[in-house]
Design goal:
It is a single chain. By secondary structure, the chain is α+β, with helices and mostly antiparallel strands. The protein has a domain at 15-69. The protein has two helices and five strands. The chain has helices at residues 2-5, 61-69, and strands at 18-20, 30-34, 37-46, 49-54, 58-60. It has a three-stranded antiparallel sheet with strand order 2-3-4, covered by helices on one side. A hairpin with a 2-residue loop joins strand 3 and strand 4 (49-54). The longest helix has 9 residues, at 61-69. It is globular and about 45 Å long.
Length: 101
Amino acid sequence: MASQLRGGSDEPLPEPEYYDVTYEMMAKGSDVQRGRRKVRQFAVLVNGSVRVVTSGDTVDRETYRALVASNAIRPEYIHLPEAAGQESDPADDSGQGRLDF
């Protein structure tokens, strides 16, 4: 049944080429006031060059992986359907549904 929901294929979904980085997913960085809104910035080393990432940016896969490896961002979670009668616990860090690299 699950394979039918995914179009009949048991192949994993391809990894995205680009990722949106939101303020909420950034665990590290400096808060900067830009006009009326607050953004967070973090510098990360990717293949020998420093990249400054600002919340709201779209980054490539290499930069995303470097941010995850440095614990600067919380990796995006796959939203899995909950079993009937179960509620998810946001404090649960079992890793289920996490995109691991």
